[in-house]
Amino acid sequence: MNRSAAYALAPLPAVAVGLVVMRTHGVPSSRLLIQVVACILGLGLFALVRRVRINEKWNTWFTLLTIAFLATSFLGHGEQGVYRWVSLGGVQLHAAAIACPILLVAFVRSSFVAGFEAPARLGALALLAAQPDAGQTTALGLTLLVLCWQRSTGMTALLHTISYLLMITIAWSLPDGLKPIIEVEGIVDLAFAQGTWLGGLALTTLALPIATLFAAPTRPLGPCLATYLLVSFIVTRIAHFPVPLLGYGAAPILGTLIAFGAIAHQEAS
Fold first, then answer.
1. What's the CA gap between 94 and 105, in Å, rounded?
2. Residue ranges covered by each domain of the chain
3. In terms of pTM, does the model score above 0.90?
4. Average of pLDDT values for 15-33?
5. What is the DSSP string of 157-221?
């Protein structure tokens, strides 16, 4: 198996285990179908991203369009003052789970301190904090901190650190009264309730794409995306946030496969 195929397949075992857990629990078949369709669409996006060459100008436009997509979550009615979703064909997509991997790819490819990138990074975090989405603000913010200290030093790095930590603090301080859904936020506990072996398998399959990204020779993109995915999972053990890949939700599948497509493209280049 070549590395490109390995990248495409790495997120899928976690989705498959999640489907088994959801099916055993009696989750409606329509939700299981959405997961399968998301995998198919995600693999198509993986193939597209792997082949498309993006120069600095297009990288800028993709950054702006992705931030605009993230902002469209505020156009809906929200739920209990929370604005995290974009509706597409009747399916609610977690906007940040798609936008954050794309933004990380764009930020890694661009100059870290020049041009509009600094306000773009802060703007994306501000939108996440305002939704509020403390989980994704933390995942993106901490990953940007790692990237920041790799690419800058001194006062510049300090100012970035303060601004990112401020956005994370604001996100956690805003009220979030959403009730957890067992197949979304509670999928890991549900897997362990069905069997210790199944819970262990769920965690193992979730670790697979993270380990694959950390091991990818494309640096700093691989470790940055791995850090983002790892923190996205860790916050689900702290508070009620969607578990990526394992839990119900098309957006993390799409976002993760887009990210792996970018890894495959950079490695092939």
1. 18
2. 3-268
3. yes
4. 97
5. HHHHHHHHHHHHHHHHHS---PPP-TTTTSHHHHHHHH-HHHHHHHHHHHHHHHHHHHH-SSTTH
